[in-house]
Amino acid sequence: MQQRQNAKKHPEWVRLAIQLSIWVALALFGPLLLGLTVDTVLGTAPWGLLGGMVFGMTVALILLFRSIQSRYLALAPPETEEEKENS
To answer: Which of 20, 26, 27, 32 falls 20 to 30 Å from 66 in CA-CA distance?
Structure first.
């Protein structure tokens, strides 16, 4: 019961910011650590690390873009053809 009351105290944007922060952190550090592990095992430094960084940044940007886009479309849905004709 107490947990539900605490959830109502925080605005939705705070929960969204925390969720996006966790997604971006995981998307960045997961591939980064994987690239570092590949470098250690195969002795290919710094290419695994750089590849992990590029992959992680790409995934993080895609996640961030899709999340922002879905939030925007929920707030301002695109006009339908009927709405365009009526205005």
So the answer is: 32
pLDDT of residue 8: 64
Q: What is the DSSP string of 7-63?
A: HHHS-HHHHHHHHHHHHHHHHHHHHHHHHHHHHHHH--TTHHHHHHHHHHHHHHHHH
Quick: pLDDT tens for 21-74. 998 899 889 998 999 999 999 998 889 999 999 999 999 899 889 988 888 888
Between CA 72 and CA 11 the distance in angstroms is 17
Q: Cβ contacts of residue 38 below 8 Å, gap of 6+?
A: 44, 48, 51, 52
pLDDT band at 6, cuts 50/70/90?
low
- Burial of 44 from C-beta contacts in 10 A (0-12 / 13-18 / 19+): middle
- Within a 13 Å sphere around the CA of 80, how many CA atoms are in the beta-carbon half? 2
